[in-house]
Amino acid sequence: MAKIVTLGEIMLRLSPAGQYRFVQADEFDVIYGGGEANVAVSCANYGHDAYFVTKLPTHEIGQAAINSLRRYGVNTNFIARGGERVGIYYAETGASMRPSKVIYDRAHSSISEANPEDFDFDAIMEGADWFHWSGITPAISDKAAELTRLACEAAKRHGVTVSVDLNFRKKLWTSEKAISIMKPLMKYVDVCIGNEEDAELCLGFKPDANVEAGETGAAGYHKIFEQMAKEFDFKYVISTLRESFSATHNGWKALIYNGKEFYESKRYDINPIIDRIGGGDSFSGGIIHGLLTKKTQGEALEFAVAASALKHTINGDFNLVSEAEVESLAGGNANGRVQR
Question: Is 32:64 a contact under the CB 8 Å cutoff?
Fold first, then answer.
């Protein structure tokens, strides 16, 4: 299996039980997660040598975050220690027409104030097959944006395939700032993953589709994928296509383009959703595994869509499914019958 490196922030997630609102909660469930950490867990579950790179405090909460990764087989050898705090986010799970809600408390976290000398990116990328990052990391701080650039440069020096999940977060930065930081980083990227909103707000591209009205026909994406691939020399352009009927009922499929052909996955009707946080990350982990191990882009995409559909049924940030479970769903076994 492959050596896969991801860079980002793992946070302490505090969530009320079930569908309780923040104002009702007398206690919170403790969960650890964050974009690239979630991808690393997925890749480890599929048998890869997955490394997560970040900086965490030396105190016990920092150690607990590391332990949460080690529990699922993620290599934490390159995690720097130091700084003042672990980033926190509060997540309230929605239901029906009430959306889920996230409140960030992540300013001055250890990774947001980390310096280049905290990491030896050449050592980290030595022997790596794949490096994955997301738009969340450079959005954290200017220092984190610089770390992202240095990591991408090291990946290219070592011949590593680079993927990005554009992952625009309006609570972290503006579209103008995102475009100014993200567009120059695209020259390092081989595989670009993002939905229609991400492509517009991070790169300035807009598909010909009314997503708010649930019109997620893949045809509207063909031209924009071709333009993105041409401008940034991407080997693959990939988008998830989410139809949001309610907080607990979504349609889910995806589209991939390799510069020659388009492939649209089958569609999953996910109802009820248990926890959609980490859904996009589980897709990224699935597409990385798929592109590394499958013969065609279509097979890779079907694996990724099935993996992310399953994630919507699991509490927490991490997608705790095996390759065999994903293959079973991708192969058509979606009835949910008890496995005896």
Answer: yes
Convert the pLDDT of each residue in 234-243 to its tens digit. Answer: 999 999 999 9
Q: C-alpha angle 208/209/212, rounded to 5°?
A: 145
**What is the amino acid identity at position 188?**
Y
- DSSP-derived pairing of the beta strands 29-33 and 101-105: unpaired
pLDDT 10s digits, 31-47: 999 999 999 999 999 99
| 298 SS3 class | helix
Residue 170 CA to residue 304 CA, distance in Å, equals: 26
Three state DSSP letters for 237-286 = EEEEEEEEEECCEEEEEEEEECCCCEEECCCEEECCCCCCCCHHHHHHHH
Whole-angstrom distance, CA of residue 108 vs CA of residue 127: 32
Packing angle, helices 297-311 and 279-293, rounded to 10: 150
Spatial distance between the Cα atoms of 268 and 91, rounded to a whole number of angstroms: 25
Q: How far apart are CA 66 and CA 61, in angstroms?
A: 9
This prediction has a pTM of: 0.94
Q: What is the DSSP letter of 132?
A: E
Tokens 């896969």 sit on residue: 4
> Distances from the Cα of 277 to the Cαs of 132, 196, 223, 274, 285, in angstroms?
18, 18, 29, 9, 14
Q: Which residues are catalytic?
A: 281
Q: What is the pLDDT of residues 158-183, one digit of tens each?
A: 999 999 999 888 888 888 999 899 99
